[in-house]
Amino acid sequence: MRSRRERITPEQVGLVRGARRRTPGLRREEVAQLSAVGVTWYTWLEQGRAIRVSAQVLDAVARALLLDATERGHLFVLAGVVDPRPEYDCPVLSPTALRLMHTIAPYPATLQNARYDVLAHNRPFAQVFGELTELPPRERNCLWLLTTSERWRETFLDRDEMLRDLIAKYRTGMAEHVAEPAWKERLDGLLQVSAEFRELWRRHELATMSPHVKRYRHPQVGLLRLEHRNLWLAPQPQTHRLVAYVPADETTERRLGLLAELA
Questions:
Q1: Which of 7-16, 163-172, 190-199, 204-213 comes out lowest in average pLDDT?
Q2: Cα separation, 153 vs 21, whole angstroms
Q3: I need a labelling partner for 185 at 20 to 30 A (CA). Which of 28, 175, 233, 258 fits?
Q4: Pick from 121, 153, 117: which is nearest to 137 by CA?
Q5: Tens of pLDDT along 28-72?
Q6: Residue 173, Cα to own-chain centre: how many angstroms?
């Protein structure tokens, strides 16, 4: 909090700098004033003292310090408080990651986060699984689509097994993100719309990432057998990853090539 306070100029928040300012950035009393909290209380918060803090006050402090979405989330995690304004993140994908995803064609590929949100996909993925850009952003999620999409239910021949496995993986991943609103909001939405999801979630099954082959029925080229391969784009396992759907046999390789020609 101190580092973020010191990077803000008075002019950025509508304050007068004055002639005798020695503190880089804002003073503590100025942040307290902008947050509508007491100076002593804000000082104790910045010093990390064991005080009770509400989500509303943290929200005001985050606004006063001009925190971006990542910094705001970090502030709430450090305080052990649930953010009252859950928002879906809008990550900026690097040109390198996007170029790599498109280079994999004619193999389907996506860029996903740890919650299985599809952040981007290449043309072969749209040909095999559907054009996700036609859906609202909140529905561009593999777990949501596997649970609710009629197209995915009909196309994915191993759909029931895949759904059970993905729910188990989501539960495993969520253990490290229990306090993050986006994870809980996704879960709450699925529990509300699907009795099947509710029944599978109550099993408390766990699973980890592993390569596996799944079967898909395409209306134009027939059966596709694809192996799911994950490539993490950073050392941390919870960051974005490239998911490639690689042919598991020569027939699938040939049919993906044919699908690219049809396009």
A1: 7-16
A2: 64
A3: 233
A4: 117
A5: 999 999 999 999 999 999 998 888 888 888 989 998 999 887 788
A6: 12
Domain boundary among 79, 113, 145: 79
Cβ–Cβ < 8 Å for 6, 23: yes
Q: Could you tell me how far CA 90 lies from the centroid of its own chain?
A: 8
What phi-psi label fits residue 163: left (phi over 0), alpha (psi between -120 and 50 degrees) or beta?
A: alpha
Q: Which of 248, 258, 239, 246 is nearest to 93 (CA)?
A: 239
- Residues 104, 67 share a domain: no
Indicate whether 176 and 252 sit together in one domain. yes
Its sign, for the CA torsion 183, 185, 191, 194, is: negative
Residue 69's domain is classified under what CATH number? 1.10.260.40
**Domain count across the chain:** 2
- Residue 114 shares a structural domain with residue 201: yes
Percent of the chain with pLDDT over 90: 56
Domain range holding 34? 1-79
Distance of alpha carbon 37 from alpha carbon 55, whole angstroms: 13
CA–CA distance, 142 with 116 (Å, rounded to integer)? 6
Taking only the tens place, the pLDDT of each residue in 95-131 is 888 999 999 999 999 999 989 999 999 999 999 999 9
Which stretch of DSSP H or E encloses residue 69? helix 69-79
